[in-house]
Design brief:
The complex is a heterodimer of chains A (about 210) and B (about 325).
Chain A lengths: L2 H9 L3 H9 L3 H23 L2 H18 L9 H22 L16 E2 L2 E2 L2 H9 L3 H11 L5 H8 L3 H19 L19 E2 L4
Antiparallel strand pairs in A: 1-2
Helix pairs in contact in A: 1-3, 2-3, 3-4, 3-5, 4-5, 5-8, 6-9, 7-9, 8-9
Chain B lengths: L20 E2 L6 H10 L5 H9 L1 H18 L7 H12 L2 H6 L17 H27 L12 H10 L8 H7 L24 E8 L2 H20 L7 E3 L13 H13 L9 E7 L2 E9 L4 E6 L5 E6 L1
Parallel strand pairs in B: 2-3, 2-4
Antiparallel strand pairs in B: 4-5, 5-6, 6-7
Helix pairs in contact in B: 1-3, 2-3, 6-9
Classes of the chains: A mainly alpha (about 210), B alpha/beta (about 325).
Chain lengths: ~210, ~325
């Protein structure tokens, strides 16, 4: 079988078939699997980290972790869900590393042509990144996994290892905080019970 | 909640946000209902309530702005970036398959898309601290017409010769001794000796303590070089030993001659020069004592990690 034909055949396979082939040592199957999921992992990491460079690093770490851990993947979860967990962990690790190193030079802020518009102007990529960066990481992960990646609540709960009720509450609170940050003059009223920007509702972790 | 075998699945990562951590029970009830309505997961009771409460309906529209913003398409990376990332991941495949990877040592690979600022920081720090001595070494070597087969040199013999010639561990004492007239020949009349394998002691040495991951090693290298740069800015003389952290875990000699030639050859294969390492560090890396050497390349630096058996466990470029 020629290489192109072989790759075409592999490319048409579903994830489970590719995983099984890769676990059996099929290099083409693994590469097809990684290419198939790369952009999704990158999108998750881009939203989680807030910049392209960290997203690339986290994506690479995630794919390497997938390659290294594929032999332990038992197929009881969808490969997509498993890969999201690996990727989320990689993103959280990247964020942790970022806190230990000097801040990179700020990127140039450019308007985002297809962004949703608010009354006071267009939303920029930077505004979304900044708003997401204002969320605690576990809230950010829930919001990104739901609203960027489209995961169901049960899948998010599985990825993050938290109850569905926690997913629901974190999603609601995260969305409200984001909306408030993106549109401070919107419906959100600072100071009301449960408002994320109300510092009285914030608990400082103690060592 | 997790229905999978914990031994076969990656575990959800704990976070250590420096930002305040929210409590999960502080959510506004209207936001809960609005969010559930957006996802079409509201209960009949919640739907009834939304129908009766205009503020809940307003919250739905308000939260939709956040949903739309986060859900907007992410610009995919370039094909080159994608290929590089996938290539790096695929490079891990064969060692994993063949079981060549030591159980306790994780291979290190270059990370795609490093921040230019970080590279500049490393380069600037190394050049600031090591540039002048390295230039002196290169200048000295450039005066020697005889080629040196570093790999072929006998380490014990050349070590003895170096000691006999007054070469100190920093590689500069011999020149000072020559210039000081310990030999009848002056340094001007006698061409400097070529730097041989035994003289390949590092310009700077360090102890990194316990290092758990490849990325932690990179961070330490960056931090070490930054700290050294600070010392230089404070007019602290170049030292041959800098304690970054002291940890009893590392037991390997910082001047393991037996490994030097191997490390240098490995560096040369990756474009490293054949001189002494710019930096030599010891560490306990992935539970194993290792030596870490940094060599100069035409475009940057190459890092070589060797284990107690003088096996190269990792090598990467920076």
């Amino acid at each position: 079988m020629g290489l192109n034909r072989r790759l075409a055949t592999v490319g048409d396979s579903d994830d489970a078939t590719l995983v099984a082939a890769a676990q059996g040592g099929d290099r083409d199957a693994l590469e097809t699997l990684l290419r198939r999921h790369h952009d999704r992992v990158y999108a998750l990491c881009r939203r989680m980290t807030g910049n392209d460079a960290d997203a690339r690093d986290a994506t690479q770490e995630a794919l390497i972790a997938i390659v290294r851990g594929l032999h332990r993947f038992d197929g009881r979860a969808a490969f997509t869900t498993w890969s999201y967990r690996v990727a989320t962990n990689a993103c959280l690790d990247e964020l942790r590393r970022r806190r230990r190193r000097p801040e990179p030079v700020d990127a140039v802020v450019e308007p985002w042509d297809d962004a949703p518009s608010f009354d006071d102007g267009i939303v920029t990529k930077s505004a979304i990144d900044d708003a997401l960066a204002g969320l605690p990481e576990q809230y950010r992960a829930v919001v990104v996994l739901r609203d960027q990646m489209g995961l169901e609540y049960t899948e998010i709960a599985d990825v993050l290892g938290v109850p569905i009720g926690t997913v629901r509450s974190r999603l609601a609170r995260g969305r409200a905080a984001l909306a408030q940050r993106l549109d401070p003059d919107g419906v959100g009223d600072i100071g009301r019970p449960g408002n994320p920007d109300d510092s009285t509702n914030v608990r400082q972790d103690t060592p | 909640m997790n229905s999978h075998d914990p031994d076969s699945e990656p575990r959800p990562r704990e976070t250590d946000d420096i930002a305040p951590t929210w409590t999960d029970d502080g959510v506004d009830e209207r936001d809960l209902v609005a969010s559930s309505l957006i996802d079409d997961l509201a209960t009949p009771e919640e739907r009834r309530r939304a129908g009766d409460d205009p503020e809940v309906r307003a919250r739905v529209e308000f939260l939709r702005t956040a949903v739309a913003a986060v859900g907007a398409a992410v610009t995919p990376p370039t094909d080159a970036s994608r290929d590089a990332v996938i290539g790096a991941a695929m490079a891990e495949f064969d060692p994993v398959r063949s079981g060549e990877t030591p159980a306790n040592v994780e291979p290190i690979r270059p990370v795609a898309g490093r921040h230019p600022g970080r590279l500049l920081l490393v380069a600037a720090a190394i050049l600031a601290v090591l540039g002048l001595p390295a230039l002196l070494v290169l200048a000295q070597r450039s005066n020697d017409p005889a080629p040196t087969d570093l790999a072929a040199n006998s380490v014990p013999e050349t070590r003895d010769a170096a000691v006999a010639g007054g070469v100190g561990p920093d590689g500069f004492a011999s020149r000072e001794a020559d210039a000081g007239g310990s030999s009848p020949s002056t340094s001007a009349a006698t061409p400097p000796r070529p730097m041989t394998a035994d003289q390949a002691d590092p310009i700077t040495t360090a102890e990194f303590g316990v290092v758990d991951t490849p990325d932690e090693l990179r961070s330490i290298l960056v931090g070490f070089l930054s700290a050294t740069e600070t010392e230089m800015n404070a007019d602290v003389p170049v030292t041959t030993t800098t304690e970054v952290s002291t940890d009893a875990g590392s037991t390997m000699s910082a001047t393991s001659d037996r490994c030097e030639a191997l490390a240098r050859r490995t560096a040369a294969d990756r474009g490293g020069d054949d001189g002494r390492p710019l930096l030599m560090a010891t560490a306990t890396y992935m539970d194993s004592p290792v030596d870490i050497r940094v060599y100069r390349t035409p475009t940057g630096f190459v890092v070589v990690v060797t284990d107690p058996d003088c096996q190269v466990t990792a090598a990467f470029e920076m």
